[in-house]
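Technical annex, item 7. During the second reporting period the consortium partners agreed on a shared format for inverse folding records so that results from different sites could be compared directly. Each record opens with the tokenized structure and is followed by the designed sequence. A conforming record, contributed by the partner at site C, is shown below for reference.
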């Protein structure tokens, strides 16, 4: 292995690590606010990639019907869960947010999709279709279980993941897709060739991470989410609606996942079930970060990218094994550092 190969492997690691960092930070965000380990985070990535590919081809994406199905289920869940205190104004708000908005998106997308308006329009439409799925999933599966244990929430999260994978196969089919590069530019740095796509991935990742830092540091909503993450009961006592906080956290996770899907689809083929493996690699970084520290999580994601890149060069058959093995020493170290309480006999 010479220095040129090392540079190419590092470049590949940084690009993949940037995507894993976004996914891992979304996992940490959702867990901090709602205690949900969001296993289906990768589905936002896969569905966004499949959606933008359909729009690029001038087709109406099946994401529309998936969004409508989730909207109907969310409306039923919200009405059934809150029917005793359901006032007419609240009923209208629930129906508008879960059914009317998806129907309006159907009209807009059916009109715009055949026009092939280009990258900017396709990106905006994809975000409009994917981001609402986050709050809808929270309403359907997790809001009724908000006070349950982490284990129960994890089981529910796996159930949502399996359901979305099945729906993804039904709506999108088994074919994989790739989209055109977001930038056709190319740069050289010595023997290293840097593509415009890799620059876009890193730039968008840095901008999004900076925007998240500003959001949590300076906006009232961000501070409210931090309060829920710090003390859920205390946040409720001072008037912060934890249900709304959960929906906002899921919406942000869906936004991050959608952006990740748009960034990664020009790099690799995306299938209906590709999100699970991508999400697992983000989960490895989140575990290394203790599901708490955003900085350590981002650095761990870069480490995951390095391990994956170099192991794919030396032992490509076992690259996934090496990536997931990272968790083991971290868990052992945390186990040795934490105090254990003996069970009462």
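Designed sequence (site C submission):
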């Amino acid at each position: 292995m010479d220095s040129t190969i090392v540079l190419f492997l590092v470049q590949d690691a940084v690009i993949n690590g940037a995507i894993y960092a976004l996914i891992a930070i979304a996992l940490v965000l959702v867990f901090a606010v709602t205690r949900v380990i969001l296993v289906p985070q990768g589905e936002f990535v896969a569905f966004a990639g499949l959606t933008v590919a359909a729009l690029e081809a001038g087709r109406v994406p099946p994401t529309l019907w998936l969004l409508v199905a989730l909207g109907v289920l969310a409306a039923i869940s919200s009405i059934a869960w809150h029917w005793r205190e359901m006032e007419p104004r609240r009923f209208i708000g629930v129906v508008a947010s879960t059914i009317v908005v998806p129907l309006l998106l159907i009209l807009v997308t059916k009109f715009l999709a055949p026009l092939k308006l280009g990258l900017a329009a396709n990106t905006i439409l994809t975000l409009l279709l994917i981001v609402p799925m986050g709050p809808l999933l929270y309403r359907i599966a997790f809001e009724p279980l908000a006070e349950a244990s982490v284990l129960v929430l994890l089981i529910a999260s796996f159930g949502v993941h399996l359901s979305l994978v099945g729906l993804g196969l039904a709506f999108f089919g088994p074919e994989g897709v790739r989209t055109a590069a977001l930038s056709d530019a190319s740069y050289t740095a010595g023997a290293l060739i840097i593509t415009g796509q890799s620059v876009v991935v890193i730039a968008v990742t840095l901008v999004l991470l900076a925007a998240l830092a500003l959001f949590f540091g300076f906006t009232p909503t961000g501070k409210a989410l931090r309060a829920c993450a710090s003390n859920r009961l205390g946040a409720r006592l001072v008037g912060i609606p934890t249900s709304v906080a959960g929906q906002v956290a899921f919406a942000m996770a869906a936004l991050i996942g959608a952006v990740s899907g748009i960034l990664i689809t020009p790099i690799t083929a995306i299938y209906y079930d590709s999100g699970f493996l991508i999400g697992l690699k983000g989960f490895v970084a989140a575990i290394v970060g203790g599901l708490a520290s955003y900085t350590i999580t981002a650095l761990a994601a870069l480490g995951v990218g390095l391990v994956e890149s170099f192991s794919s060069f030396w032992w490509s058959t076992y690259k996934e094994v090496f990536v997931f093995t990272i968790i083991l020493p971290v868990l052992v170290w945390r186990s040795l550092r934490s105090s254990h309480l003996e069970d009462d006999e």
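The beta strands are 186-189, 192-195. Confidence is low (pLDDT under 50) at residues 341-345. All partners now use this format for quarterly exchanges.
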